[in-house]
Amino acid sequence: MYKTHWRHLVPIAFVVYLLISLLALLLAVLLGWFGVLISAFIALAGVFWLQGALVIAIDDVRDGRADLSIQETLNRVLPRLNTLTLAGLLAGLGITVGFLLLIVPGLVLITLWLLIVPAIMLEGCGVFASFGRSRRLVSGHGWNVFGVIVLTVAILLAVTIGVNIVESVLDSRWVSFVLDVATQTAAAPFLALAWTITYYELRALKEATPAPAV
User: Terminus-to-terminus CA distance in the chain, angstroms?
Assistant: First the structure.
């Protein structure tokens, strides 16, 4: 899917990533240290904004073609922006605390909450309902979902190491900036594809499972 639709997915990732970066930069310039602090929260929420836009784009191309323009895709995210923001901040806080508690709780929470964004964007779940929906979808398939996380992160880590080696050889701020933007915009659709396809697979499994007899 990435190979087929990267020309549609990567520009969406670039536009959203650029808007988030410009907003964070503007706040830092206008508000100083307080703006930097707010920018950190925006960066965290921005991960969920970007994933939200890509989930819509991926849902759009599942039939083999892209019917929505970039603007139409972003317009579908706007009504859910507050929900994505609050869910992102809560998830980020919970996972951070989990990692501080000997790492394992953080890994468990990442696994259970992996499907928050698809639940919000494709099912219209609210903030707290999205956490419950993600947990129910993952339930019974936790190790498989964790395996998807490990595999995707390992691939991205390998790419990041390669980019860092190139940056160290070239030793140029502008080259580093361009490479960072390129890496982020290329990686985001890859993650969104892997995790959104996981959502569809788990939802199909859950819907195919017959209800227990009363």
Answer: 41
- Give the pLDDT confidence score for residue 33 in this predicted structure: 74
Which span out of 112-116, 162-166, 174-178 was modeled with the highest average pLDDT?
A: 112-116
Number of H helices and E strands in the chain, helices first, is 9, 0
φ and ψ at residue 171, rounded to 5 degrees: 50, 55
DSSP state of 115: T
Reduce the DSSP state of residue 212 to 3 states and report it.
coil
Mean pLDDT confidence for 37-60 = 82
DSSP 113: T
Tell me how far apart the alpha carbons of residues 197 and 58 are, in angstroms, rounded to a whole number: 9
pTM for the model: 0.82
For residue 40, give every residue at least 6 positions away whose Cβ sits within 8 Å of its Cβ, in sequence order, or none.
none
∠ Cα 3 44 85 (to 5°): 95
Separation between Cα atoms, residue 67 and residue 193, nearest integer Å:
17
